[in-house]
Amino acid sequence: MDHKSEDSSSADDRLNDGTFTDDRFAQVPDVMPPSFMPVGDKRKKRAAAERAQSQREQSQRSAKSLSDASSTPLIDGEVRPRRSVLINMLQWLSLVAVGVLIAVIVKTFFIQSFVIPSGSMENTLRPGDRIYVNKLVNQADELHRGDVVVFRDPGGWLRGVHQPQQNQASQIFTKVGETIGLVPTDLGTHLVKRIVGVGGDRVKCCSDDGKITVNGVPIEEPYIRAGVNPSDMPFDVTVPKGYLWVMGDNRSNSQDSRYHHQETGFGFVPVANVEGRAWLIFYPFDRFGRIPSAGSTFAQVPSNSGAGDG
């Protein structure tokens, strides 16, 4: 009895101090391997993986549906709408239509381009010059002596002037271009001259020293082409209200108010016919620049009772 009790006590002591080993008692590892993950954690991980897979599949189906309908996948997996040729054409046509509308509005109300066909305004303007006209300046109280203006033929001023011949296609193209402002308007129905007298002015040629007078004041005209007299044609007129007396800077080569007054007895231009004031040469580029008004030339001229007295 005593011997067995001693053996049992020794065995317990060896077991407790860790020196006794037995195949029935394996040591527990510090980190649980994956195969021994608790069942609850496995289920959570599996559910998360299934949800992620489901989301990927749904995203792929949506992308494929959008691509099949009207899109082209990009390299990075995004999708970009595929625009049909018709839609692109409609967009371009819309842009062109808006551009044309803006051009027509600008040409109708603000600025219009013209091309100079003759030398009647040399050397201020030369044949072939392209100019811009400010259409906001076309009222009697906005037009002054010394301004260069473009105006519609008041009747018969362009009679006998040679007009270049164009075939039908060129005429259509030119007309459309002029209408929308893309092609400068030829002065075939318009003229360009300088205002010398406004409504109420008395304009006369010439003084004892050969100068034109306005309201009795002799005018020194620096814009006249060198070597040309202010006028070789005598006249003495009073400009009616609402009309202008205009002359070319190349006086010896300009059928202006003087010529038509002598021919018909009425060489005045209605203010209503004025398109606007010429203000810029934009071509040729070596002549680019503003067209200055010569208002200072008439600074000493007294005012009159007419509208737009300068």
| β-strand amount | 15-25%
Count of helical stretches:
5
Mean pLDDT, as a whole number? 78
- Tell me the Rg in angstroms: 47 Å
Overall body shape: elongated
Unreliable residue stretches: 1-16, 69-75, 306-310
Describe the main β-sheet briefly.
9 strands, mixed
Helical coverage, percent range: 25-40%
Give the distance, in angstroms, between the N- and C-terminal Cα atoms. Answer: 148 Å
Number of strands: 15
H-E string:
HHEEHEEEHEEEEEEEHEEE
Which structural class is indicated by helix and strand composition? alpha+beta
Q: Which structural traits does this protein have?
A:
nine-stranded mixed sheet, disordered C terminus, four-stranded antiparallel sheet, alpha+beta, 310 residues, elongated
Describe the SSE topology.
Blueprint: H1 2-16, H2 39-70, E1 71-73, E2 79-81, H3 85-109, E3 111-115, E4 130-134, E5 148-152, H4 168-180, E6 185-186, E7 190-197, E8 202-205, E9 212-214, E10 217-218, E11 235-238, E12 243-247, H5 257-264, E13 269-270, E14 274-283, E15 289-290
Parallel strand pairs: 3-6
Antiparallel strand pairs: 1-2, 3-4, 4-14, 5-7, 5-14, 7-12, 8-9, 8-11, 9-10, 12-13, 14-15
Structural overview:
By secondary structure, the chain is an alpha+beta fold. It contains 5 helices and 15 strands. The strands form 3 sheets. Strands 3, 4, 5, 6, 7, 12, 13, 14 and 15 form a 9-stranded mixed sheet that branches. Strands 10-9-8-11 form a 4-stranded antiparallel sheet, with no helix packed on it. Strand 1 and strand 2 form a beta hairpin. The chain is elongated. Mean pLDDT is 78; it is low at 1-16, 69-75 and 306-310.
